[in-house]
Amino acid sequence: QVQLVESGGGSVQAGGSLRLSCAASGGAFSPYSMGWFRQSPGKARLFVAAITWMTGNTDFADSVKGRFTISRDNYKNTVSLQMNYLKSEDTAVYYCAAKTSGETWLSRLASDYSIWGQGTQVTVSS
Question: pLDDT by residue (tens digit) across 19-69?
Fold first, then answer.
């Protein structure tokens, strides 16, 4: 059974940067795409960014466009989220997820992702 584990979360001041990583292990791994979502207490889990596994095509939520980048290493089975110019609004638990089926490669819907990591806390101080 494939498992995803996030790392790299922590506290940073507004305007700073942080890099999150997600490692897949436990079996064969060949998803359609990988995504990052975030969730704050009392709020819904929201899409942040996604990348297709084979081609590296990307998609970003409007709130993070121009500030975040997503990348993947197919050989190491890892996905990273580089977060720059962080804002207090970016504070959340960040989740890595794998989309393993469907009619499209990319999706912004959490329900389209079948494997999830445990999450890592990101706190941005003003």
Answer: 999 999 998 899 999 999 999 999 999 999 999 999 999 999 999 999 999
DSSP state at residue 2: -
- Rounded Cα distance between 121 and 18, Å, is 11
CA distance 110 to 47: 7
The two tokens of residue 66 are 């121009």
Rounded Cα–Cα distance for residues 68 and 35 (Å):
13
- In DSSP notation, 38-63 reads EE-TTS--EEEEEEETTT--EEE-TT
Token readout for 34 is 């990988």
